[in-house]
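Quick one:
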Amino acid sequence: MTTTSQDFAAAAPAVPIAATAPGPITFVVLTLWLAAVLVAVAAGAFADDPGELPLGLIAGVALPVGVFGAAYRFSSRFRAFVLGLDLGLITAFQAWRVVGTGFLFLYAWDVLPGFFAFPAGLGDLAVGLAAPFFVAALYNGGASRRSFVLWNWLGLADFVVAFATGLLVSGSAAGVLAGEVTTAPLNLLPLVLIPGLAVPVFILMHAVALLQLRQPSAAADPVVVARRG
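Output:
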């Protein structure tokens, strides 16, 4: 006799996860982050150079993730903040990934290459469409921990694929597969806000979810979001 994940979720005790919404400090940090990206764009930090690697773009994604990791590792207060965030809200935020289908329209208009647009756009669409279902499961019946963890890792894998394909068809030294149409428009406003701000934020949201699920209290299946009250 086999046991499905649905049967297991029905039999196992629900494990509550904290439900705290981001506060004013979070929005201040995001505002300053946006301002830093705009300054970097104005300074040409994201511009492609055929003879150089796109270090500005790489730093724009890696630096926020590195700062987050260091703060989580060395600050108990920040760690408590991360582990206390509303997992349902964090998951719902990923629904905005469906906007990534815009890459497909930009491909149709010869603004972006298909080598990048198709995996990035379709990957974002798949992750974004799945988000509401996980939110509903988290709040209402408990989500299968394995499927939820897998979805978060797939969301991160989507960014790895998009970043790799984007570099290969960029106008920089990494663009070994670049043709007439490159990903250069992603280095200019307003599209630069995607790799410079949106992508790192989405990555951090996945990281928050996975870090919360690593805690001993969330080691069982299913996982539910604790109700406010």
